[in-house]
């Protein structure tokens, strides 16, 4: 089907786009003149955004709403921040932040989704494919990858293993998870809220924690391993033969 847009409509659209681009560039130039480091026209900054001199805004970054960026921050590349505060010295790399407060000297990203009402203290790391929502993180927490922390209060210097999930929703109501200081949450732990993990406690990898874990305790909630000798052999015979045949053909 042919494009039926008239030349007049295209010209009007071009003028509208040119005006928007010109207005966007004026905002970029104002920030650069104020000491913000921006070296790409792909950056988009809304009129109400406040950026401290010395901050670096990298290519593909979008800053919306009443966002505030502190001194010494590195934002981007390819980052979206909306109605949020990022305190001094923090890095937000290839991530999205909404209606939250990122504390000083945080390391966020890449590919982190910081959802509404997330608050972090000094030196928090939220890494690759981490999602947070309505949660408070005290000083020095490390959440490196593939983890969801929602409706939670986390004490200082906790370490979260890969695949940790706070199970905060039962289909009707939301519940909070409370984690003390210096906790170690093992890989693939499910924390079924409401639940508390005491100061200095551990959870064993692969556990589904449904009861409170006392301070200094190890919470284990998994079935003991059972090995059925020889169970796999008949199931694997055809598969192994197929792969050996393929390997022989490829080696000819």
From TrEMBL:
Catalytic activity: N-acetyl-alpha-D-glucosamine 1-phosphate + UTP + H(+) = UDP-N-acetyl-alpha-D-glucosamine + diphosphate; alpha-D-glucosamine 1-phosphate + acetyl-CoA = N-acetyl-alpha-D-glucosamine 1-phosphate + CoA + H(+)
Parts of the chain that traverse the membrane: none
Needed cofactors: Mg(2+)
Keywords linked to the UniProt accession: Acyltransferase, Cell shape, Cell wall biogenesis/degradation, Cytoplasm, Magnesium, Metal-binding, Nucleotidyltransferase, Peptidoglycan synthesis, Transferase
Name of this chain's protein: UDP-N-acetylglucosamine diphosphorylase
Ranges of residues in domain Mannose-1-phosphate guanyltransferase C-terminal: 46-143
One Pfam family hit: Hexapep
Keyword Cell wall biogenesis/degradation listed: yes
Stored InterPro entries: GlmU-like (IPR050065), GlmU_C_LbH (IPR038009), GMPPB_C (IPR056729), Hexapep (IPR001451), Trimer_LpxA-like_sf (IPR011004)
Organism listed in the record: Faecalibacterium faecis
Role, per record: Catalyzes the last two sequential reactions in the de novo biosynthetic pathway for UDP-N-acetylglucosamine (UDP-GlcNAc). The C-terminal domain catalyzes the transfer of acetyl group from acetyl coenzyme A to glucosamine-1-phosphate (GlcN-1-P) to produce N-acetylglucosamine-1-phosphate (GlcNAc-1-P), which is converted into UDP-GlcNAc by the transfer of uridine 5-monophosphate (from uridine 5-triphosphate), a reaction catalyzed by the N-terminal domain.
């Amino acid at each position: 089907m042919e494009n039926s847009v008239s030349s007049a409509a295209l010209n009007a659209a071009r003028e509208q786009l040119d005006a928007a681009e010109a207005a966007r560039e004026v905002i970029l130039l104002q920030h650069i003149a104020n000491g913000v480091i921006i070296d790409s026209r792909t950056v988009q900054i809304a009129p109400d955004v406040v950026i401290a001199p010395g901050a670096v805004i990298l290519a593909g970054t979008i800053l919306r709403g009443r966002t505030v960026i502190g001194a010494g921050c590195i934002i981007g590349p390819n980052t979206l921040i909306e109605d949020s505060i990022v305190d001094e010295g923090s890095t937000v790399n290839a991530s999205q932040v909404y209606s939250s407060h990122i504390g000083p000297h945080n390391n966020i990203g890449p590919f982190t989704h910081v959802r509404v009402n997330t608050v972090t203290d000094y030196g928090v790391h939220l890494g690759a494919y981490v999602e947070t929502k309505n949660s408070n993180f005290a000083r020095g927490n490390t959440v490196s990858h593939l983890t969801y922390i929602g409706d939670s209060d986390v004490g200082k210097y906790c370490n979260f293993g890969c695949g940790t999930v706070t199970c905060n929703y039962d289909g009707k109501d939301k519940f909070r998870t409370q984690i003390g200081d210096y906790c170690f949450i093992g890989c693939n732990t499910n924390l079924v809220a409401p639940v508390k993990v005491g100061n200095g406690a551990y959870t064993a990898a692969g556990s589904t924690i449904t009861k409170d874990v006392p301070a200094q305790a190890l919470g284990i909630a998994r079935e003991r391993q059972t090995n059925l000798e020889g169970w796999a052999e008949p199931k694997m015979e055809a598969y192994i033969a197929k792969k050996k045949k393929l390997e022989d053909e490829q080696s000819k």
